[in-house]
Amino acid sequence: MDVLVNKFANCMSSKTKSKKTMMNIKIDASLKKRAQKIADSFGLPLSTIVSRKLEEFTFDKRIVFEKTLTPNAKIKKIIKETEKDIKSGKVGHRHKTVDSFMSSLSKE
Questions:
Q1: What does the alpha-carbon distance between residue 2 and residue 86 come to, in Å, rounded to a whole number?
Q2: Which of 13, 63, 76, 79 is the most exposed place for a label (fewest CB within 10 A)?
Q3: How would you write the pLDDT of the chain (108 residues) with one tens digit per residue?
Q4: How far is CA 68 from CA 9, 79, 107, in A?
């Protein structure tokens, strides 16, 4: 994988052999440390990672923020209760008609 990452970085940097400039940004110190550690593990300078993301941003003219969502205690409890209800047969029944569905709701 390191070879692939290095080839990608070289490919990207060869496209950007133009005049370089310095960019100063303020970011959280722990974020920089974590990012630097990951960049180092790939054998890439952090500036290459930042440059690549800026290239992506200017090419796509959009930015995507993704975050893996972790359920809180309340949601975990609801999930656990729902899984229990599914296993017991309390929920998950398929209805053939709207009337059957509506009737099941009024029984609860």
A1: 45
A2: 63
A3: 455 555 555 555 555 567 889 999 999 999 999 999 999 999 999 999 999 999 999 999 998 888 888 889 999 999 999 889 888 877 767 788 888 888 888 765
A4: 26, 17, 37
Q: Which stretches of 1-108 are DSSP H helices?
A: 2-15, 29-42, 46-60, 73-88, 98-107
The answer to whether the pTM exceeds 0.90 is no
Closest CA to 16 of 46, 47, 41: 47
Q: How many CB atoms lie within 10 A of CB 20?
A: 9
